[in-house]
Specification:
single chain; 112 residues; 7-stranded antiparallel sheet; 9 strands; elongated
């Protein structure tokens, strides 16, 4: 299940959860060893839907329109459904030949 901004989303295609470490002061010591100040780990999720109705496409895009929003998703590191706050990156849609349908909706959400 994927819920964004309190709205249960239509089932997306299989999605990718990326985990990025955020570093403060990091670099190399004189001996070449890594010195790392990890200050946090954040998620970004690549989401895509195919062949959704125009209404579903509008629902999906409206859910990510606020500057920040919550999402409930299956987090592989947590091993369960998790709630985090995200913002959205660039959004893309593709229209197909079938009237009333959107061929593709895709975007990344990035943890705040």
């Amino acid at each position: 299940m994927l819920e964004i901004n309190g709205v249960v989303m239509p089932a997306p295609l299989p999605y990718t959860v990326n985990m990025q470490d955020l570093d403060g002061s990091s670099g190399r010591a004189a001996d070449g060893g890594m010195i790392r100040d990890r200050i946090g780990t954040k998620r970004s999720i690549n989401l895509e839907w195919a062949n959704v109705t125009n209404s579903e496409a509008a629902l999906i895009l409206s859910a990510v329109s606020p500057i920040f929003f919550t999402a409930i998703y299956d987090d592989p590191l947590e091993g369960e459904n998790t709630v985090k706050t995200f913002y959205v990156g660039d959004r893309a849609t593709s229209k197909g030949a079938i009237t009333g349908f959107t061929a593709k909706v895709s975007f990344n959400i990035i943890e705040r």
